Amino acid sequence: MAQAAAVAKPPAPPRRSRARSRARRASATPRRLPYLLIAPAALLMLGFIAYPVISVFYYSLQHYNPTKPWRNGFAGFENFVHAFTEDPLFWDTLVFSAKWVIVEVSLQLLFGLALALIVNQTFVGRAIGRALVFSPWAVSGVLTSAIWVLLYNSQTGITRYLADMGIGEYGTSWLSDTSTVFSAAVVADLWRGVPFFAILILADLQSISRDLYEAAEVDGASRVRQFLHITLPHLKDAIILSTLLRAVWEFNNVDLLYTLTGGGPAGVTTTLPLYIANTSVDAHNFGYASALTTVAFVILLFCSMVYLRLSKFGGESK
């Protein structure tokens, strides 16, 4: 029996193979260490992001109103059908959101590019000029709204001083007039949004080699041709990325419009996210608000993918 056990016992692995396996484990540990270190933070972020997203998708298929619990229950796609076929406010707010994003992003890009080109030049007091240009970006949206509410105040704001100079009438409120409220809100958001583009574009401008401009000057290229054939192609990716990010932020803009106009007057400045906030917070209709949020998410995802595909982000500039 002892001889049979001795024969059945597997031979011990050679020392060289054991040393090789230990070396492989030792070399794999440093490669896994970074992932192990970021794993707790990654799990926390996943929990804080995944749970709200899954909850929104879940409640979008429910009738959920805490003030009317007897009506709560599974709704299927009824909330989505109601949004697309029975709710005119959904389409009105969606159209205004598109108008708001296009106007704001276009103007912010234009003025941001101009400011970046200006502060990229060498002049006396350039550091102070850059600080003044970039400072509005450090102001929160609610504080920006409070500043512009005071500026637009009919008794102590801009309109009062314009009336003193004979321009307009006393007591005029640009935020209460449907013909002027959009322009007033656009100007207020421009003040805070333009520095975002200026910062990103200026950072990319400073990476352009001066040799390219010097070679263009030797070839007799004008400033306009240098801008079109050197500056703009180099800024292509920065412009695409900044416009995409800003478009998403402007679409989701709630704090400034809520504080500045509250969606009024007569709901003409109500964006889709602001409508969602009013539906959930004021009307407590969280099921329908979740369905609108899901629709907004799909719209942003689709538009972002199409924009990146059409703009050829990351591709070679011709």
What features would you describe in this structure?
Strands 1-2 form a two-stranded antiparallel sheet. It has helices spanning 2-8, 15-59, 78-85, 88-119, 126-134, 141-151, 158-164, 181-205, 210-218, 223-251, 255-260, 272-282, 286-311, and strands at residues 62-63, 73-74. It contains 13 helices and 2 strands. The model has no long low-confidence stretch (mean pLDDT 85). By secondary structure, the chain is mainly α. The termini are far apart.
- Please indicate the percent range of residues in DSSP E strands (runs of 2 or more): under 5%
In angstroms, what is the radius of gyration? 29 Å
The mean pLDDT is: 85
Helix content: over 70%
Uncertain segments are none
- What's the arrangement of strands in the largest beta sheet? 1-2
Strand count: 2
Instruction: Tell me the quaternary state.
Output: single chain
- Major β-sheet profile: 2 strands, antiparallel
Summarize the helix and strand pattern as letters. HHEEHHHHHHHHHHH
Globally, the shape reads: globular
Terminal Cα span: 83 Å
How many helices? The count is 13
Topology:
Layout: H1 2-8, H2 15-59, E1 62-63, E2 73-74, H3 78-85, H4 88-119, H5 126-134, H6 141-151, H7 158-164, H8 181-205, H9 210-218, H10 223-251, H11 255-260, H12 272-282, H13 286-311
Antiparallel strand pairs: 1-2
Write a brief structural summary.
This protein has 318 residues and is mainly alpha-helical. The protein is built from 13 helices and two strands; from the N terminus they run H-H-E-E-H-H-H-H-H-H-H-H-H-H-H.
